[in-house]
Design a protein that fits this description.
68% of the residues lie in helices and 6% in strands. With 299 residues, the chain is mostly helical. Helix 1 (10-38) packs antiparallel against helix 8, helix 3 (79-92) packs across helix 5 and helix 5 packs across helix 9.
């Protein structure tokens, strides 16, 4: 990984390696079970699994950006946004990513890309309209830290198994893969959804645990880079508070991409949503930023 001035996070690296190992092991077991169940149709399993993996790894960032309505902009079209990214990249000593804007009133931002060379950082029009310049820089520093730490790529690969499990379930139910002249077809139709459900739950829990830590890590490293944790805390408070005022229809449209967003597109106060959220609670994030502010003050 190219070095930047973002503070390294050994805890994040350890969690990413552990998650990738467990996800990879689960992936091998899952494909092996499918091959055993589908019998002579195993080449179809391998083709589908391999094709989905390649598509997820190489095109997921573009798919996510397209799904969230990201539109790449030039410095002439968005001078303030480009200026903030330029300053942060110079401060962090990292290549400048592509810059985009999503036409959405949901105040948020996200970063995608397998590495620093093809990364993209996007802010919504709702975020740009609501935040002060120092708050915007805090949010962008948070997103750039995801790019520097490459946890976006890890999350993309980690989430692949859940996608594969769902696709294979549909293929088994709709296409009848594995049918033969004996009575194994019924067993396949029963077992594939069951195995897929177990795999999905395990991969979901693993990615959620990693996702929550990586958001805290991005808050921490972004705040340390700018030296203004209070600006990031202010942005967090504004963005989270504004979510309750966004129409439910817009929130539901943004919700499938919560793992990418700076803050989850959920109405606050829902305990069940917080339990399965891809992000730590606002209180946890503000408490950490408060500790960093105190440390910087003592320094």
């Amino acid at each position: 990984m190219p070095r930047t001035r973002f503070a390294p996070d050994r805890g994040l690296v350890t969690r990413m390696v552990t998650t990738m190992f467990l996800i990879g092991l689960l992936y091998v077991v899952f494909v092996g079970v499918l091959i055993a169940l589908f019998g002579r149709s195993w080449p179809i399993v391998v083709i589908i699994a391999g094709g989905l993996f390649v598509a997820q790894f190489w095109f997921s960032d573009r798919i996510a950006a397209f799904g969230m309505g990201a539109r790449e902009v030039t410095p002439e079209q968005a001078p303030e946004l480009h200026g903030a990214v330029d300053r942060l990249c110079a401060l962090a000593d990292m290549p400048k990513p592509r810059v985009a804007i999503a036409d959405s009133d949901v105040p948020n931002a996200f970063a995608t890309g397998r590495n620093q060379r093809n990364a993209l950082v996007c802010a919504t029009t709702g975020l740009l309209r609501r935040l002060e310049p120092d708050e915007l820089e805090g949010v962008l520093a948070h997103e750039l830290s995801h790019v520097a730490h490459r946890d976006v790529a890890v999350m993309t690969i980690a989430s692949f198994l859940g996608v594969l499990a769902g696709v294979m379930t549909r293929v088994a139910l709709w296409g009848g893969i594995g049918r033969s002249r004996n009575n194994t077809a019924g067993l396949v139709v029963l077992l594939v959804p069951l195995v897929s459900a177990v795999v999905y739950v395990i991969s979901f829990l693993l990615t959620r645990l990693l996702s929550r830590y990586r958001e805290l890590s991005a808050d921490r490293t972004g705040a340390l880079l700018t030296g203004r944790p209070s600006a990031l805390a202010s942005a967090l408070t504004k963005v989270t508070g504004q979510m309750a005022r966004i129409p439910t229809r817009d929130l539901r449209r943004a919700e499938p991409y919560n793992a990418f967003w700076f803050a989850p597109a959920l109405s606050p106060g829902t305990s069940l949503a917080n339990l399965f959220s891809s992000h730590p609670t606002l209180e946890q994030r503000l408490e950490q930023l408060g500790r960093i502010s105190a440390q910087l003050g003592r320094g």
